[in-house]
Batch of 2 targets.
Target 1
Amino acid sequence: MLVEVYGGIAMRKTAVYKWVKRFSEGRDSVTDKERSGQPATSRTEENIAKIRQIVCENSRLAVRSIAEQVNIDREIVGKILTEDLDMRKVCAKMVPKELTEEQKQRRVTVCQDLLERQDDILGRVITGDETWVYQYDPETKRQSAQWNIANSPQPKNSVGPNQESKQCC
């Protein structure tokens, strides 16, 4: 009968049975009872300002460490960052380090020298079980991730391995 009168917005049959049971057990009001616990006050202007300041100081922090600093739940921090501050976590795009003209010319000279001596070098190659290779370990894409305001350009990672990129909100 409820569906005929109210259509799609009618209360479901199971919900009606629950309410009938509650009223038969002595309940006399449809308003919510007082609940124990802490009110939801984590998403305040004060906490939003704290998080904005933390991210401006170091935009590479993870949500977990921001939540620990502000002492609120990680989900709330994530919502503040994405919804209130309109930020998103982006990874730096790896680009070759910017070289001076002298460094570029030195690379050209070394490459030309190697090309001239390639027969001499390849003629002396002896295979063995040990290889000596210079290895540069740039930071991973995940390590370079930082918080940026939406619609801002993607950061470029042209800094060395022990340098920090300076960027503020």
Note: The beta strands are 87-90, 93-94, 146-149, 156-157.
Target 2
Amino acid sequence: MREGRPVLVVVGGLPATGKSTIADQLARLVGAPFVRVDRIEQAIVTYSPLEHPIGAAGYAVAYALASEQLRLGLDVIVECVNPIALTRDSWAATAADAGAGIVEVEVTCSDLDEHRRRALTRVTDVEGLVKPTWAEVVGREYHPWSRPHLTIDSLDTSPAAAAERIVTRILAARMEERGA
């Protein structure tokens, strides 16, 4: 049994920055459940009358799944765009309600041409999911973060190095006092 409280890691950022790759690598490295909002939203669309965009439903399911795993004492890795204060605050509340720590990560790609190339050439590993166009990526609502968080530029940080940086934050968050 590990020492300390469980930790919720939320890996956010615009589409095509490398969030999924980093979160997948991290989940494998630490052996934690990986909750991916794209996968949840696509399953809802596939098995219900809803169509994209489905609104808050995907995030609501993800909050519930993460909360359950945290209450079991497990760390949880979540990957989502996490575009606005409401979603970010809801993740913080999910962690707090479960007595867990939180590590908030924003993945960026500082080279606009490289970010565009990634958006135009990537393929999905979520069956049925149509990736956003470049215009949709740059035109989507995405607010600056208002509280301290870890920023990783995927242009110059490999997924393995990013995962290692996040692990350092997980270890620190695990040992922080509840509510500190």
Note: The first strand starts at residue 7 and ends at 12.
